[in-house]
């Protein structure tokens, strides 16, 4: 039995483990997931209010945009989600949306975007999931072609295969902390540094009062701070749920705090004050949450765009995710998972 460690529990990790389980007998692999977060989702995170019942907001992925070609190629992924009603056609009105492609279809996640990640993880029969577990170091064992890993919290493990589903700069940081394959990774690490991301804050507001909304979703081109606002419950086709609002800031606004030590609550208060000035008729939210996205969408992916990046064959160590595909979206993550699984199958069966 091959022991596989997947680092990260976002959508690419969930799809990779799901597809592996579909192709291999359970007794051939033992899958472990480590994630530094408190729960699954990654950039498909859904935040739930602590004070307003049944009130939630997507602070990562907002909706899924796809094309007929991708829908056809990825039917095996889309159809179960549609059958389970985890995906529904997008019905909200958008102001200011500019599509680069023609003939696109939008879908929303009525239960929140993290529900998709949870669905595929549940279907994967993961042997062990460890949250609040930060991968600190990796090292090749002396006597076998295996990888020994340690977490910041003191957890250790030995695995035959390691799959890293994390932003490229964090992969570089991991290898800089480790003694594994430093010479061999010198060139590869530099290539990883070339991957570029956009950054932003996501600001969620939970309301315990109903009020008239001025729009469903709106993109702002002329605001230096605010890029996007959605009435999240309406966006998810759930207008009868308590009102929740998601605000995405501009990258420019995020970058203005890079060299400062401004407390999160100060940024949160500043955004709330700005929204109240823009929309003075809105009531005060019962609760707010601020999400920091240092690595949001990929702007410039890895140059090879293979869907993965392989660092070592024995032991097998690969990186997966939308950093290694042409498009930073849901279909890109599906493509990465499918390409990565082919490499993993060869490593498992060798």
From TrEMBL:
SUPFAM superfamilies: FAD/NAD(P)-binding domain. InterPro entries: FAD/NAD-bd_sf, RNLS. It holds the Pfam family NAD_binding_8. One of its GO terms (cellular component) is extracellular region. GO terms for molecular function: oxidoreductase activity, acting on NAD(P)H. This is Renalase-like isoform X1.
């Amino acid at each position: 039995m091959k022991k596989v460690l997947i680092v990260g529990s976002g959508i690419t990790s969930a799809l990779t483990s799901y597809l592996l389980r579909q192709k291999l007998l359970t007794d051939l692999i033992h899958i472990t997931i480590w994630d530094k977060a408190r729960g699954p989702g990654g950039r498909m995170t859904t935040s739930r209010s602590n004070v307003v019942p049944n009130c939630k907001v997507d602070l990562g992925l907002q909706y899924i945009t796809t094309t007929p070609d991708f829908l056809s190629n990825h039917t095996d992924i889309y159809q179960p989600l549609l059958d389970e009603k985890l995906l529904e056609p997008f019905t909200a009105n958008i102001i200011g949306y500019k599509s680069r492609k023609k003939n696109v279809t939008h879908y929303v996640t009525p239960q929140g975007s993290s529900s998709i990640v949870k669905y595929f993880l549940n279907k994967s029969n993961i042997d062990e999931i460890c949250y609040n577990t930060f991968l600190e170091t990796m090292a090749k064992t002396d006597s076998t072609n295996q990888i020994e890993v340690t977490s910041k919290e003191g957890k250790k493990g030995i695995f035959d295969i390691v799959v890293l589903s994390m932003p490229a700069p964090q992969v570089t940081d991991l290898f800089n902390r480790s003694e594994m394959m430093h010479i061999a990774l010198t060139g590869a690490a530099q290539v990883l540094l070339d991957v570029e991301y956009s950054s932003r804050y996501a600001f969620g507001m939970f309301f315990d009062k109903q009020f008239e909304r001025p729009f469903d979703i709106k993109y702002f081109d002329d605001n230096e701070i605010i890029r996007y606002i959605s009435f999240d419950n309406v966006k998810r086709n759930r207008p009868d749920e308590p009102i929740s609002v998601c605000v995405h800031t501009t990258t420019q606004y995020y970058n203005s705090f890079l060299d400062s030590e401004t407390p999160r609550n100060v940024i949160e208060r500043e955004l709330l004050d700005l929204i109240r000035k823009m929309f003075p008729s809105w009531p005060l939210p019962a609760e707010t949450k601020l999400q920091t996205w240092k690595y949001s969408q990929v702007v410039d992916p890895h140059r090879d765009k293979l869907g993965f990046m392989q660092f070592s064959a024995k032991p097998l160590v690969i990186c997966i995710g939308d950093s290694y595909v042409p498009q930073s979206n849901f279909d890109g993550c599906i493509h990465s998972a499918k390409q990565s699984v082919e490499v993993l199958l060869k490593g498992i069966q060798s």
